[in-house]
Amino acid sequence: MRGLIIGGNWKMNLGTPEETRVHLKELVSLTRSVNNVEIVVFPPFTTLYLAKELTKGSNIKIGAQNMHFELSGAYTGEISPKFIKSLGCEHVILGHSERRDIFHESDELINRKLKKALQMGLTPIVCIGEHLDERENGKTKEIIQYQMEHTFRGLIKEEILKTVIAYEPIWAIGTGKTATPEQAEEVHEFIREFLSQEYDESVARAIRIQYGGSINPTNAFDLFKEKNIDGGLVGGASLKPDSFHEIIKAAERIHDLE
Ligand code: PEP
């Protein structure tokens, strides 16, 4: 059985020590009795160290929102996966649509980062998803397939198995417009078909695929109960400990049903 994984992507929010302290103290206490759901919070780089300290001995793991594809060098303003790893972080988000669209990150660049993250023993959460016009023009699967072919290029079976995929339709991110469970499930199923063709059926069955895009406490359960959806990557609703906790509880309920 694939485990459920819930990620909280803070983006460029809550990055001061005080905000981090207040938020994580509450979240640690709310999630104390959570079982069977992997919880990963992604704060800004400035507060990763503190976040790790605050979550010691809790159910919450801490990850980074991005990284560079080299371990060191003349890359002003960039963060090495080695630094992330040295803090005890296990996860890193790669290829978020905001990185792709605002900072022009290509599939090829994300592929380099992905290979380095895996070499460093980090668990990458790789985001893929289509724009609104692409969906409206019936191109969703074509885009998803292209992104997977290029982002995962050259990964062997053992590597892809360590990767988490986040299907995040871009039109649903931060817009309040969620994909319906059926729309999301259709793409998740397609992703597994692709993995089955590129690798094999066991890989397709084993990989965790999160949904992301305006998840909230009201829609989370219906999304997570779909067969091919293994939890979610949450932006806006992860900024409030109680709403994030409600989403985690929805994942727990799914686990209990299985
Ligand atoms: C995200 O940033 O990955 C995301 C899904 O954001 P939101 O939940 O706010 O749509």
What report would you give on this structure?
By secondary structure, this protein is an alpha/beta fold. The protein has a single domain (4-257), classed as TIM Barrel, CATH 3.20.20. 44% of the residues lie in helices and 15% in strands. The protein has twelve helices and eight strands. The protein has helices spanning 17-30, 48-54, 81-86, 97-102, 107-119, 132-136, 140-151, 157-160, 181-198, 201-206, 220-224, 241-257, and strands at 4-9, 37-42, 60-64, 91-94, 123-128, 164-167, 209-212, 231-234. An eight-stranded parallel barrel has the order 1-2-3-4-5-6-7-8, surrounded by five helices. α3 links the parallel β3 (60-64) and β4 (91-94). α1 (17-30) runs parallel beside α12 (241-257) and α7 packs across α9. The protein is globular. 43% of the residues are buried. Phosphoenolpyruvate (PEP) is lined by residues 9, 168, 173-174, 212-215, 233-237.
